[in-house]
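Task 17 of the worksheet. Students: predict the tertiary structure of the chain below and write it out as structure tokens. Keep your answer in the requested format; marks are given for formatting as well as content.
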Amino acid sequence: MKARTPTSDAVVLGAARVGTRTKALTPQLHHGEIAVINHEDLDRVAAERLVEAKPAAVINAARSISGKYPNVGPLLVAAAGIPLVDGVGEEVMSRIHNGVAVRVEKGEVYVGTELIATGTRQTLQTLEAEYEAAKVTVGEELERFAENTIEFMRRERHLLFDAPTLPDVGVDLRGRQAIVVVRGADYRSDLSALGPYVREMRPVVIAVDGGADALRERGHRCDLIVGDFDSVSDEALRSGAHLVVHAYPDGRAPGAERLERLGLPYSTIAFAGTSEDIALLLAYEKGAELIVAVGAHASMVDFLDKGRPGMASTFLVRLKVGPILVDAKGVSRLYERRIRKRDLALLLGAVIIAFLVAGFTVRDFFVQAFGILWDSIR
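Model answer:
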């Protein structure tokens, strides 16, 4: 991984932008500001959003790589040439406020002349060393992850056999194809590659939280939005899609409060798994003949990035919907070489018209030439 420029000793100045949740902070973060976050094991998706915002620096109250598992997020930040000061302590979240001018010198953070916090000024080399060390110790985290997964599976195994009670979502999925969009790794490239598929097949489009904004960026509309609605814009929520709130098994639904404030109608599904699991299960139980997953989380690292202790519900849901579930990359490869009948008909029509025009042109030429020759003979 190649960094743009070495930044280990540069002094950085900028206005602070503070947020305890990185995914909620990044939409508000402006170019040249200094992001102040509290994000242990900075995940890839959050790091990509930080890089897109182009902050002057990132100050992390926690350790960007704790050593539990090898997470690539901090390396992306360093490779983009963005200074990263790590492990400065949680006190920084209350001592620095939005808009305050902050100065970063090596591993020290100043507000005016006051030293606020001290941490580790990371470089690509130091992060790569921590990343490699985490590869060695990941076995312990994997064991804990597997134990949690098995324990959750004992409680949730009914997912394989029981048909859950699902609300009316206002969209008929029977016999149709569905696309489930999660704003996960590679979601942009997946959506770009799926353009021909979406235009031709016109699938039911289901977004999971911020996936709705990802679709809006590409000019696609959503039929359904599923989630707790903590990382999706008001504009996407008001787009006319049916909204399904992911509630906890005990019935609490934090996302419902936001929709009520906005005056938007919604349905609720209580589920112990992720919102992504709900979207897949919803498409399956409502009769979709094929489900295409975009940006979906499937690996252990994906779930550790999300802070999940296990992936039991995801494992069980994928066992259930597996026969009709395909990855976006596979679908895009099928469609990139496919010639549609409509395109073939248009091409054939153009060829026929070209031949007719050429024929009439040649005929007129010979008629005129014969007329000139006949006049000369006469």
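Marker's comment: The longest helix spans residues 341-377. The radius of gyration is 28 Å.
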